[in-house]
Amino acid sequence: MSVWAVATIALAAGGLGPALYVAARGDALDRLIGLELGGVVATLVLMLLSHGPARSSYLIAPLVLAVLSFAGTLVFTRVLADRP
Q1: By CB distance 3.0 to 4.6 Å, which of 7, 26, 29, 38 could disulfide with 19?
Q2: What is the predicted pLDDT for the residue at 83?
Q3: What is the distance in angstroms between the CA of the first residue and the CA of the last residue of the chain?
Q4: Measured in whole angstroms, how far is the alpha carbon of residue 73 from the centre of its chain?
């Protein structure tokens, strides 16, 4: 097992658990924060999985996920905003 695989497992176990907990509890703003944290952790996990010379094409998925996660956060923030 390589160092990158250990780092990926540690990040997935240590980061996705709290993100899921925050996304499942609390009010709407707390759930949005948990969703954003989960997107960041998932992006980092996919970037760690794509490490290596033979897997450079696997880097496309985390880059697309980063952009879509940001756009999704903007949409949910717009939905949660107070209407005048």
Answers
A1: 38
A2: 67
A3: 55
A4: 11
Task: State the pTM of this model.
Answer: 0.81
| Per-residue model confidence as pLDDT tens digits over 30-51 | 888 998 999 999 999 988 888 7
Band the pLDDT of 53: cuts 50, 70, 90: low
Alpha-carbon gap, residue 55 to 59, rounded angstroms? 8
CB 73 within 8 A of CB 32: yes
SS (H, E, C) the chain: CCHHHHHHHHHHHHHHHHHHHHHHCCCHHHHHHHHHHHHHHHHHHHHHHCCCHHHHHHHHHHHHHHHHHHHHHHHHHHHHCCCC
Phi, psi of 56 (to 5 degrees): -70, -25
* Structure token digits, residue 8: 């990926």
